[in-house]
Every structure is written in structure tokens, then in C-alpha cells.
Amino acid sequence: MKKSIAAVFLFLTMVLLTGCFGDPVQDDLMNYVNKEMKDAAKYEKAAVSAYESVTGANYTDDQALYDVLMNDVIPNYNEFIKELDSAKIETDEVREIHEIYIKGADIQFNAFAKIKQALEEQNANLIQEANDMLAEARTHIREYQSKLEKLAKEHDVKLKK
Predict the structure, then answer these.
(1) DSSP secondary structure, 49-84, as one string
(2) What are phi and psi of 123, to 5 degrees?
């Protein structure tokens, strides 16, 4: 009888301890996605939406592009980068992925600044450089998204699309 009580006690203790230690990467990832990146995502969406509203098929003229860059894109993207830089991350796994995002965001921000400069100087070569930078930034951001999804899957975290 004493042995079975001891065994049950040991089993319950192990279950309770398992619950106490959890998965630090899972916890960090959930905090990262749900809290740390919440405001950052708003700024990024505002900046990218504004940029897309005056480029590609929506392009009307250089002045409209310049005004949106100055008033919406660059200020919002600057806030986005501040949010990225201030994110509190506890684990190396999440930090490694976050650094990829920061790199892509920095390149994209510099591309927006280069487009602004190109418009001021009416320099088509700078526009091409900026477009190349935007392509490079997209590569980093896609890598970030892919690695984030993989890490989430490995640690049983569901991400909203």
C-alpha cells in the first residue's frame, strides 16, 4: 500500500513539475507574436499600404509618391523599426528569427529613403538601386516568415495568416 501511494505521489509530482517547466520557446513565441509584434505589425501595414497606394498600377506622378513617402511611408516605417528594436525576446530561437526580420526591415527602410532621394534628385539610377534593395528586403522578410512558421510548428504554436 505504501509503495502504491508513493508511486502515485511520485507520478503526480512529475506531472506537476512538467507543467511548471513547459516550453520556454513556445512561451516566448506566443508572447512575441501576440504582444511584442502587435504594434509593429500596425505600423508596417500602414507604411506598406501607403507605399502600394502610389506605386505600380496606382502610380500617378512623382509628387504624389514623394508626398506619401514623406507623410506616411517613412514615418510609419520608422516607428515599425523602433518597435522591432524594442521587442523583448527571451530565447535564442526567437531572437535569431527576429534578427532576420530586422535586417529585412532595415534594408526596406533604406530603400524608401533612397526612393525619396531619387525623387528629389530626379535620378533614375537611384530608383533602380532602391528597387534592388526592396527585392533583397523581400527575400529576408520571406525567410523570416518561413522560419517563424517552422518554429511555430515545431513548438505547437498556431499562427494566424
Answers:
(1) HHHHTTSGGG---HHHHHHHIIIIIHHHHHHHHHHH
(2) -115, 105
Residue 121: is its pLDDT beyond 60?
Answer: yes
Rounded Cα–Cα distance for residues 29 and 89 (Å): 8
CA 99 to chain centre: 9
Pull the grid cell for residue 27.
512561451
Distance of CA 89 to the CA centre of its chain: 13
DSSP-derived secondary structure for 116-129:
HHHHHHT-HHHHHH
Which of 115, 142, 120 shows the shortest CA–CA distance to 50? Answer: 115
Dump pLDDT digits (tens) for 123-154: 999 999 999 999 999 999 999 999 999 999 99
Distance in angstroms (rounded) separating the CA atoms of residues 154 and 105: 25
Which tens digit of pLDDT belongs to each residue from 57-85?
Answer: 999 999 999 999 999 999 999 999 999 99
Average model confidence (pLDDT) across the chain: 89
Write the DSSP symbol of residue 91: S
156 conformational bin, left if phi > 0, alpha if psi -120 to 50, beta if neither:
left
